[in-house]
Amino acid sequence: MTYSVQVKVMPLKELLDPQGKAVMGGLQNLGIRSVNDVRIGKNIYLQIEAGSAEEAKKIAEEAGQKLLANPVMEYFEISVN
Amino acid sequence: MTYSVQVKVMPLKELLDPQGKAVMGGLQNLGIRSVNDVRIGKNIYLQIEAGSAEEAKKIAEEAGQKLLANPVMEYFEISVN
């Protein structure tokens, strides 16, 4: 069966997010002033062929650790649909 | 009150996603062969000061239309926590 797995890769909370800061500046310039903070990461959808949701999650975790996220700067979260 | 709003920005389904294709190739090279498709977009967290969740969502929608997503190539989804 094919599982749709969502992997969110975000910059670590301890780190500055210059892309987010730039977008916040852009929003202010557009007159949207009620946004206090912006953090930007990646949203990755994987279509995984697996025997169970558990197995699909394990494969996504392996993918996250080996390729999708850089653990020095990012963390990732997985959800299986 | 401050609402945490998540904006997912993804490439339109009709379009190719070269970044996703490249990541899929990388996964195959790493021996992760059960992934059939990869699509990569952005995951954006906004901290929005608003009177209600409704209002926060409206502000996020305005931000999505004006700055966060390029409607020619991307669509976006909003969820308020």
From TrEMBL, chains A, B:
UniProt record similarity statement: Belongs to the PurS family.
Catalyzed chemical reaction(s): N(2)-formyl-N(1)-(5-phospho-beta-D-ribosyl)glycinamide + L-glutamine + ATP + H2O = 2-formamido-N(1)-(5-O-phospho-beta-D-ribosyl)acetamidine + L-glutamate + ADP + phosphate + H(+)
Listed EC numbers: 6.3.5.3
Function noted in UniProt: Part of the phosphoribosylformylglycinamidine synthase complex involved in the purines biosynthetic pathway. Catalyzes the ATP-dependent conversion of formylglycinamide ribonucleotide (FGAR) and glutamine to yield formylglycinamidine ribonucleotide (FGAM) and glutamate. The FGAM synthase complex is composed of three subunits. PurQ produces an ammonia molecule by converting glutamine to glutamate. PurL transfers the ammonia molecule to FGAR to form FGAM in an ATP-dependent manner.
Name of protein: Phosphoribosylformylglycinamidine synthase subunit PurS
Main location: cytoplasm
One of the record's GO cellular component terms: cytoplasm
Origin organism lineage: Bacteria, Pseudomonadati, Bacteroidota, Chitinophagia, Chitinophagales
Subunit: Part of the FGAM synthase complex composed of 1 PurL, 1 PurQ and 2 PurS subunits.
Catalytic class of the enzyme: ligase
The keyword ATP-binding appears for this protein: yes
The species this protein was found in: Puia dinghuensis
Keywords in alphabetical order: ATP-binding, Cytoplasm, Ligase, Nucleotide-binding, Purine biosynthesis
A GO molecular-function descriptor: phosphoribosylformylglycinamidine synthase activity
NCBIfam families from the UniProt entry: phosphoribosylformylglycinamidine synthase subunit PurS (TIGR00302), PRK05974.1 (NF004630)
GO BP, one annotated term: 'de novo' IMP biosynthetic process
Localization annotation: Cytoplasm
Domain of life: Bacteria
Pathway: Purine metabolism; IMP biosynthesis via de novo pathway; 5-amino-1-(5-phospho-D-ribosyl)imidazole from N(2)-formyl-N(1)-(5-phospho-D-ribosyl)glycinamide: step 1/2
